[in-house]
Amino acid sequence: MKAVKIGVLGLGTVGGGVVNVLKRNSKEISRRAGQEIIVASASARDLSRKRICDTTGIHLTTDSFEIINDPEIDIILELIGGTGLAKDLVLQAIENGKHIVTANKALIALHGNEIFAKASKKGVMVLFESAVAGGIPIIKAIREGLSGNQIQWLAGIINGTGNFILTEMRDKGRDFDDVLAEAQALGYAEADPTFDVEGIDAGHKLAILASIAFGIPLQFDKVFTEGITKITRADVEYAEQLGYRIKHLGIARKTDQGIELRVHPTLIPERRLIANVDGVMNAVLVQGDAVGPTLYYGAGAGAEPTASAVVADIVDVVRVLTSDPENRVPHLAFQADAIADIPVLSSEQIKTAYYLRLNAEDKPGVLAEVTSILANHNISIEALIQKEPIEGETTVPVIMLTQTTLEKEMNAAIIEIEALSTITGSISRIRVETLG
Amino acid sequence: MKAVKIGVLGLGTVGGGVVNVLKRNSKEISRRAGQEIIVASASARDLSRKRICDTTGIHLTTDSFEIINDPEIDIILELIGGTGLAKDLVLQAIENGKHIVTANKALIALHGNEIFAKASKKGVMVLFESAVAGGIPIIKAIREGLSGNQIQWLAGIINGTGNFILTEMRDKGRDFDDVLAEAQALGYAEADPTFDVEGIDAGHKLAILASIAFGIPLQFDKVFTEGITKITRADVEYAEQLGYRIKHLGIARKTDQGIELRVHPTLIPERRLIANVDGVMNAVLVQGDAVGPTLYYGAGAGAEPTASAVVADIVDVVRVLTSDPENRVPHLAFQADAIADIPVLSSEQIKTAYYLRLNAEDKPGVLAEVTSILANHNISIEALIQKEPIEGETTVPVIMLTQTTLEKEMNAAIIEIEALSTITGSISRIRVETLG
Prior knowledge:
- The structure is a homodimer.
- With about 425 residues, chain A is an alpha/beta fold.
- Chain A folds into 3 domains: about 5-135 and about 305-340, Rossmann fold; about 145-300, Dihydrodipicolinate Reductase, domain 2, CATH 3.30.360; about 350-430, 2-Layer Sandwich (Alpha-Beta Plaits).
- Helices cover about 35% and strands about 25% of the residues of chain A.
- The first copy, chain A, has helices at about 15-25, 25-35, 65-70, 85-95, 105-120, 140-145, 160-170, 175-185, 195, 200-215, 235-240, 305-320, 365-375, 405-420; strands spanning about 5-10, 35-45, 60, 75-80, 100, 125, 150-155, 225, 245-255, 260-270, 280-290, 290-300, 350-360, 380-385, 395-400, 405, 425-430.
- In chain A, strands 7, 8, 9, 10, 11, 12, 13, 14, 15, 16 and 17 form an 11-stranded mixed β-sheet that branches.
- The mean pLDDT of chain A is about 95.
- Chains A and B meet through α1, α2, α6, β12 and α12 of A and α1, α2, α6, β12 and α12 of B.
- β12 of chain A pairs antiparallel with β12 (about 290-300) of chain B.
């Protein structure tokens, strides 16, 4: 049996996980790939650090360039992260004719167009299954499994930290800050949680999913992102009373006007399967015109689930290693010359329904003022709950669900409602999607 | 742009759906495949019959052999069904050097080993994504997306008719016969529903899934099948009271002793995502050693969802059309020479937990007799409910959940319990899986 030689850049959680999986499952993997897969070299910043994997037999170096310049190496795993050194290494490795497998969502979302163009020119493959939703083979599902469809929309829980926080808030009636602190202690959330809770990480992943779903360039800069930091325990409870769950979703939708790319907290009907994806788990719901709705569920992070996707990419490369580049699946699902620059809509052009929560003075006529402002903006109300006043308070919480409207109209309506003397504080609004 | 020519054998629901999808999405599909895909010829038994698709520009014939012998045709779609003519056509088409895409689960489950051996010899591809779980890309997920894993087990709702019946029984408190009659009227179930409700159809699909998951030959004859015809409304209700749902599952599990292949009604905890897959929808839960649990959900039947999977297979073939056969994904996920003949366990060797329902005389000591028989067979009881006697009845229903046991022990225990003079009628037993 021939052997394929791998060079691993970065021996942290993911790199260590990959080395472990390749070793533990080597027999099973060779039976599938038809060739032995050997980790020949690996780089790390500090070689003295304790590893989660056994590095016996692996040439170790602190110099990643040594690995990408080694003519013996067939496939480079870029598991360093970030968009600085990682980008330089990937571009140089492609230049050197190496195939690339990367778990780096930021690198693909921000520099993928350049990387894939160079890879196509050099006739090498760059695979990135592990960059989105960890171990779930969602890139493959969309790129290959649904290739007969016009993808109409997709919606994903693609950040495990955010989903863990929202799940805890609902299950245990806890506050956002409290759960975030626990998530940090458990190692689910970074010391700086901005990327997770503000939707940046999910935005990177959404840019990738949208590109392969619709055949458009990668364009993270056009993704609208809103975090979950303003979601309160009260919102979670009111949503529940209305039959909804709040999830932090990445949504990409193709409309006649253009493409919506948005990450935000979202009310979804509790009977939807994706509404019941809890804790750190991820799931992506994809709607194709032929297949209808399909859902893909699994672990979105962690050493072994991420390694599962990295190794699947390696096997994919090995299985077609000596094929001519014409006989390969295109990087972004669509042929490079068939990528279309369909306009991405601004947030004001997005159409969605809304959950609104406001504090109104508890006296006649207040609701009439609010509802007439909404009506003037052509916003219909689907449901309305006015709570009993809490003793000693002069205002009452009012919760509304609206029908689908243009975000621009909602923005204008909210400004007018907040200006009413009978309304206290600012209005909480959360978008609502039926996903049906 | 080059054009690939398709010959469609069978223009029924699936064939018509494929022609429609290829036409409607031709632009999108060509952007992905890099080549135009043209339906050049199609065969049908009766050319005068009204079709769900437009056949303008397609050469029609009643003679399928004319199509497989046409040197202009690159890919044959076998959508006739059955294992007689379909088998002859597929083998001859392979002999003629054609690539094959088929939706025929019985053909693959029963004759796949022979078909793939011949295809490998002739260097052609035979793809069958649509044979299992309709539009869900589950074959691709297991064969490629999870190739880094040792698959430990999988469990699927892979027959939509059966799931529709069980869902209606639960949601509306209806009886099996009543719902089956409706399913037949709605066209979900065949006039002869045996294949669906007795688990034969699910057994075919399970044989295919197990083969690609574990790298074993296709062996439908070793699948244990039990239908849903004996499930009563009472079982559905008691299961619910215990926190479970009843689903008709296909389960394949790799144990140290060998492989379990079984289709039967199963109690699963209601909080599991797969317990909430309702109506005609399908889902497959796959447990890999690295990735953990992953779930794939979507429509398991119907013209368009099935066409989605057929077209994905066509695009897969087109994308690697001129590659040498060494640079392709192996038919059964594992390289042909790496298929291992791991023993399949008999039903007596299966280990699972049980739900038992029996009618016992309402007097002291009866339960002690029953539980001591179970104890003698090393079967532990997890939960026990004894219902109040219905007025005028001298027996009471007793419901038990046991811990995991060897099926052989349970068979023996049931014979002994049924022989007790204090027990009336036969014992209902349903297997229980936690799937966690």
